[in-house]
Amino acid sequence: MKFLKIKGGKSKPELKNRCFVCFRALSAPARFRLFVELKKKKKANVETLVRRVSLRQPTVTFHLNLLAKAGLVRKKKMGREVYLTIYKPCDQCFLFD
Fold first, then answer.
1. Which of 32, 70, 71, 83 is in Cβ range 3.0-4.6 Å of 25 for a Cys bridge?
2. Which stretches does DSSP call E strand in 42-96?
3. pTM for this predicted structure
4. What is the edge-to-edge ordering of all strands in the sheet holding 73-78?
5. 10 Å Cβ neighbour count for 53?
6. How many CA atoms lie within 13 A of 60 on its CB side?
7. What structural domains and CATH numbers belong to the chain?
């Protein structure tokens, strides 16, 4: 079975390492749900995500920080609110199609 199409650009080991980071970040069901919700909405604040995934705010914040650390999410603070958007770290990743 072939899961990834590797085109020009990054070498295979570099791409494998990047994919490992992404998949590991999305391995927790809560983080995957947050990622899917953000992908649907394009831009959302923490409060909106808390309501959408039915988790407590500290839990959502914890998981969003891990997604940001993995490079899948970008955070921007506006006043007291934190807005999040999906960030595509790799051109060949099928998670963003």
1. 70
2. 43-45, 73-78, 81-86
3. 0.74
4. 43-45, 81-86, 73-78
5. 17
6. 22
7. 29-96 (1.10.10.10)
